[in-house]
Amino acid sequence: MFIPADASIVALNKIQKLKQLGKSLTSYVAEFHSLVVVANVKESHVLIHIFNLGLNNDLVRAIHLMGEIPTNFDKYITAVTKIDSNINRGKTTIALTNANQYHNYRPQPKKKDDDAMDVDRLDEEECADCMAKGLCFVCKK
């Protein structure tokens, strides 16, 4: 397939500026692939490096935590897709778990302690009256 030199340079520039940001991984991969075809880049290690530059930070971190990182670009994309799927599944599970925790929350009624003193049993006027007359707060004698 013949591609004019200018088109491949323009595609290379677009690849270098391409970022996943708010896009889905599928959308980012599709756009990346279409530019790679025009740019005529075939080396897996170069493709992987450029691909990672535009990838979301969560995915880049997860990739680096993988045991063995694929060196073939197609296998690399497959691995990244699985990681992205796991991250999204985890976020969904966490969101559902958190939503259910608050949805099912019912505050427990406060139980009265029978052995506790009733310190607020008398209002201020009754308290002042008992104090002025020297009466007991409980039996008022």
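Above is the first protein from milestone M3; the second protein from the same milestone is given next.
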Amino acid sequence: MNNKLTLNAILILFASFFASCAAIDSSLNTTNTVIGHFGYDFSLNSSDTTAPGYVDDGWSNAWGCGGAVAPTTAGVFWCPNPTNTSEKFKDMGAVAFSSVTGLPATWDSPIEAVQVGHVYIAETADGYVVFKVTAIDTTTWDMTVDFLYSATGTFP
């Protein structure tokens, strides 16, 4: 009898977990994309496929993003475009995407390597983006993300 109750409890928790995850993802209307080394513009929802460009909001790479302070981690990095942003970036951690509704009080320096499952906020050329990293390819330096763009820094 106890085994049956335990199994039922586990199944109910399992079903509840997946039902709540689906509700969060579908209600946010996020966009899924791959950010590569040539750059990405979030407001246009557009990848640059020709060269790292200075019209993009930023790009990915494997050696950090310059700046005065070197990163302490290795991996794939989000590199904000220094030409059209002030390089604001924040790792919010492994939090629910829906928990991020506005801009953080402080920003990260240095920018460390991104991690799968973490949510980030970055300044763009014409607003802000919140994105969650869902996959990383360390060979091509690509990161797959779900994102929401905002011209004001307020997220639903």
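Note on the second protein: Residues 30-150 form one domain.
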